[in-house]
Amino acid sequence: MINFRIISKILGSLLFIEAFFMACCLAMAFSFHEDDELAFMASTILTFGGAFIFLFFGHEAENALSRRDAYVVVTLTWVVFSFFGMFPFLIHGSMSSITDAYFETMSGFTTTGATVIDDVESLPHGLLFWRSLMQWIGGLGIVFFTIALLPQLVGGSVKVFAAEATGPMRSKMHPRLSTTAKWIWSIYVLLTILCALSFWLAGMDWFDATNYSMSTTATGGFSTHNGTIFLASPLIEYLAILFQFLAGINFTLLYMGLIKWKMGSLFRNSEFKMYIITILIATALIMYLLLTRLDYDFEEAFRSALFQVVSFITTTGLSNTDAGAWPHLTWIILMVLMFMGACSGSTTGGFKSIRVLMLLKVLRNEFRHILHPNAVLPVKLSGQSIPQNRLTTLLAFFTLYILALLLVATIMIVSGIDITNSFTIALSLISNVGAGLDTNMGPQMSWADLSDGIKWLCSFLMLVGRLEIVAVLVLFTRAFWKEN
């Protein structure tokens, strides 16, 4: 059966971490002397109180998790973090609706970047910093952060890692998972600092540079300005492209390539090559369309195309132009990138490049089997054969992904949303992109016009997409709750 005491103990411990980050935002609010000081003071106290309550109910728990406990912990962590994370918005009064506040918070922690706030620039600096910080915490995973910081709090951390990590393959740098988590988070922190310094040196003020660095490396997309078009110079845009691209690489691979200086390991990796080739082809196609149909000059066409391609494939959702005004053929390309996503083991969402590559190789082998029925044709990635059980899991995940898209899009169509927006919203949320493509719901859109019921559905879809469907949906199966 589910051990609710250990789950309560872990949730309480994690809430202390969330309260600490709220206290950081309180310090930011005090430094700017704005009207969000009381909101963060009250939210920090409430979150600390919630942590003590959870710890009280779990104080006699043994520090050991079953696989079932791990899936419950991971899902509840994201739900509970979003619940407490919405308090600053509600107490400050910038949002009066629990639905909107929860949507915004879930969007932040899942790094989706969809916002219901029409006038972001009216928010005080503390709340803007909290929005960016939520994305940064959620970038590599809330529980994974805890494994790196305080591994003793998460008993059975390997099971938790399996429940929260993205992608079909689990790679480790070190036999101890906590050591691997520390290295990955060190790279994440280093990327964020380098990104912030680059933006600042390129002309951003320190506050925007800090916020956009967190939003960029977490591939989240929240902005401190209205809309997501924020980049004031080509240099800043190219820097944003670079750091979005780096955040889309598997962090274990990034460690081997950039920290260990084994660059050959990057280009021997099948998924990384797929990632690079997809970006190059998509950029070339969109660039051609911009040059021939919209009369862009060469450099602007290249920069705009590359920015949108990298932003969509890494599921960041930032923009340097309004892609909703581009030819419809570019929408199809961007939708494919939105679905595909970047590399597994990165901060990005989407289906993941490695899964697309595996599917293509399975299809290739099926065609070969037609000609050679008795041939043994293994699926290989980076020179290693993929076990059959992984391929079965892949096909099950693909089926669930498509069914979830169709089901949610159908519900939205029934609720009165047009077909184009229904499918782009569903794809955007399950891929954690946060940007639509229609001119009414393009990259600069606000999601405030959606009904409350649809917003709750969207919040659930963001969670399902971030935890890659199975980790959440398994909780709704009858077998999961059976004693044996």
UniProtKB/TrEMBL annotation:
<feature type="transmembrane region" description="Helical">
    <location>
        <begin position="238"/>
        <end position="260"/>
    </location>
</feature>
<dbReference type="Pfam" id="PF02386">
    <property type="entry name" value="TrkH"/>
</dbReference>
<dbReference type="InterPro" id="IPR003445">
    <property type="entry name" value="Cat_transpt"/>
</dbReference>
<keyword id="KW-1003">Cell membrane</keyword>
<feature type="binding site">
    <location>
        <position position="111"/>
    </location>
    <ligand>
        <name>K(+)</name>
    </ligand>
</feature>
<feature type="transmembrane region" description="Helical">
    <location>
        <begin position="183"/>
        <end position="202"/>
    </location>
</feature>
<dbReference type="GO" id="GO:0046872">
    <property type="term" value="F:metal ion binding"/>
</dbReference>
<feature type="transmembrane region" description="Helical">
    <location>
        <begin position="136"/>
        <end position="162"/>
    </location>
</feature>
<feature type="transmembrane region" description="Helical">
    <location>
        <begin position="70"/>
        <end position="91"/>
    </location>
</feature>
<feature type="binding site">
    <location>
        <position position="220"/>
    </location>
    <ligand>
        <name>K(+)</name>
    </ligand>
</feature>
<comment type="similarity">
    <text>Belongs to the TrkH potassium transport family.</text>
</comment>
<keyword id="KW-0633">Potassium transport</keyword>
<feature type="transmembrane region" description="Helical">
    <location>
        <begin position="12"/>
        <end position="32"/>
    </location>
</feature>
<protein>
    <submittedName>
        <fullName>Trk system potassium uptake protein TrkH</fullName>
    </submittedName>
</protein>
<keyword id="KW-0406">Ion transport</keyword>
<keyword id="KW-0630">Potassium</keyword>
<dbReference type="GO" id="GO:0005886">
    <property type="term" value="C:plasma membrane"/>
</dbReference>
<keyword id="KW-0479">Metal-binding</keyword>
<feature type="binding site">
    <location>
        <position position="316"/>
    </location>
    <ligand>
        <name>K(+)</name>
    </ligand>
</feature>
<keyword id="KW-0812">Transmembrane</keyword>
<keyword id="KW-0997">Cell inner membrane</keyword>
<dbReference type="GO" id="GO:0015379">
    <property type="term" value="F:potassium:chloride symporter activity"/>
</dbReference>
<feature type="transmembrane region" description="Helical">
    <location>
        <begin position="454"/>
        <end position="476"/>
    </location>
</feature>
<feature type="transmembrane region" description="Helical">
    <location>
        <begin position="272"/>
        <end position="291"/>
    </location>
</feature>
<feature type="binding site">
    <location>
        <position position="433"/>
    </location>
    <ligand>
        <name>K(+)</name>
    </ligand>
</feature>
<feature type="binding site">
    <location>
        <position position="112"/>
    </location>
    <ligand>
        <name>K(+)</name>
    </ligand>
</feature>
<feature type="binding site">
    <location>
        <position position="432"/>
    </location>
    <ligand>
        <name>K(+)</name>
    </ligand>
</feature>
<keyword id="KW-0472">Membrane</keyword>
<feature type="transmembrane region" description="Helical">
    <location>
        <begin position="394"/>
        <end position="417"/>
    </location>
</feature>
<dbReference type="InterPro" id="IPR004772">
    <property type="entry name" value="TrkH"/>
</dbReference>
<keyword id="KW-1133">Transmembrane helix</keyword>
<feature type="transmembrane region" description="Helical">
    <location>
        <begin position="329"/>
        <end position="351"/>
    </location>
</feature>
<keyword id="KW-0813">Transport</keyword>
<feature type="binding site">
    <location>
        <position position="315"/>
    </location>
    <ligand>
        <name>K(+)</name>
    </ligand>
</feature>
<feature type="transmembrane region" description="Helical">
    <location>
        <begin position="38"/>
        <end position="58"/>
    </location>
</feature>
